[in-house]
Amino acid sequence: MFWYLGVLALKKTPMSLKKRETCDALLIKRPFHQVELGHRTGSTLVTDPRSFEPTSSLAYNAPMEFERLEVERPFSDMGGKGVLRLKGPLVSQNLPDFQNAIRRENVPTMILDMTGVPYIDSAGLGSLVSAYVSRHKSGQRTVLTGVNPRIIHLLEITKMARLFPIFPSLADAIDALSNAGSA
Fold it and tell me: What is the per-residue pLDDT across 114-161, written as a single tens digit (0 to 9) for each?
């Protein structure tokens, strides 16, 4: 067992309570992970061992609640352009839903309506790129619509924006893709 002073560990030595109170700082007899730094008054560190909360009551690495990703098919098939509407964050916890929906679609042009996606993490970005690569290898396109500025910024700084045609809305994408086929 060690005595702890702030973040310094000192070997435990027998000490009377009176002698302990006269020290420049209060030595705390607690495991290191339960020690919190006190405030300084002059050159003295002031702490009260009774004010510490035992960390055993706090969950270590407690799982965060996350929003589910909903993948909807607003139109079953529109002239060869499959549309998937995503609602919720595209993060590592819900990637299987996204990947399964992408794999089920076998259309020449896939439109991902990301209007309801507030953010994506690195795993979500990797999943988008993976979807692009697998569809590109089979001669299919992936188009993004309704992408918020936060995600556009992520795509730009990672140089992934050039992979995807990006449209402001689903209607703009459908219009542009149908006009491109007839021109």
Answer: 999 999 999 999 999 999 999 999 999 999 999 999 999 999 999 999
Determine the average pLDDT of the residues in 23-38.
45
Query: In the chain, what percentage of residues exceed pLDDT 90?
Result: 50
Q: At what angle do helices 122-137 and 95-104 cross, to 10 degrees?
A: 10
Domains of the chain (ranges plus CATH)?
Answer: 2-57 (no CATH), 70-182 (3.30.750.24)
Tokens of 96: 């299987």
pLDDT tens digit string along 83-103?
A: 999 999 999 999 999 999 999
Which amino acid, 121? D
